């Protein structure tokens, strides 16, 4: 059964002064074949353009897909380093993702997902990041 949910996302760039980026939106949630699937739209930049986002969450693995002005498919895998391409209107960015934490708390009214990961490009460190995604059913 697809449920309407409120989604709060807080991303933190850990490397320097812990700069926070937050967003809140509504979307859809379904538990399908043991996978938590969350779909939502998110504003891109300053304009009114929205990206379509999908999160697929299983034990130790999170997949994030974005489509719109930017397109990406990122895989956060606690067991190995993964690679991703972030396709923008200005060109493609290639990077590696090293995930150090995936913690999923399932609740009766939603989920809380905490992740920590670092991004690099060819052995060159880009950033260390923390993200918390709270998903709560709208009644």
Secondary structure topology:
Blueprint: E1 3-13, E2 19-32, E3 35-43, E4 50-58, E5 61-67, E6 71-77, E7 82-88, E8 91-107, E9 110-121, E10 124-137
Antiparallel strand pairs: 1-2, 1-10, 2-3, 3-4, 4-5, 5-6, 6-7, 7-8, 8-9, 9-10
What is the helical fraction, as a range of percent? Answer: under 10%
Structural class: mainly beta
If you average the pLDDT, what whole number results? Answer: 91
Q: Identify the CATH homologous superfamily.
A: Calycin beta-barrel core domain
Residues in β-strands, percent: over 45%
Unreliable parts: none
* CATH-scheme architecture: Beta Barrel
Count of folded domains: 1
Radius of gyration: 15 Å
CATH overall fold name = Lipocalin
Q: Main beta sheet: strand number and arrangement?
A: 10 strands, antiparallel, barrel
Which oligomerization state do the chains in this entry correspond to? single chain
Q: Which term fits the overall shape?
A: globular
Distance between the termini: 14 Å
């Amino acid at each position: 059964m697809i449920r309407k949910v409120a989604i709060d996302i807080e991303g933190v760039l850990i490397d320097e002064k812990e700069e926070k980026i937050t967003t809140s939106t509504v979307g859809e949630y379904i538990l399908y074949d043991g996978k938590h699937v969350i779909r939502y739209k998110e504003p891109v930049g300053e304009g009114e353009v929205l990206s379509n986002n999908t999160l697929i969450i299983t034990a130790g693995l999170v997949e994030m897909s974005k489509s719109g002005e930017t397109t990406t498919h990122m895989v956060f895998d606690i067991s190995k380093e993964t690679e991703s391409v972030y396709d923008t209107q200005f060109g493609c960015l290639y990077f590696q993702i090293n995930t150090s934490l995936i913690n999923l708390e399932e609740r009766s009214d939603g989920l809380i997902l905490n992740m920590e990961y670092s991004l690099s490009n060819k052995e060159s460190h880009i950033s260390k990041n923390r993200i918390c995604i709270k998903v709560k059913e709208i009644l």
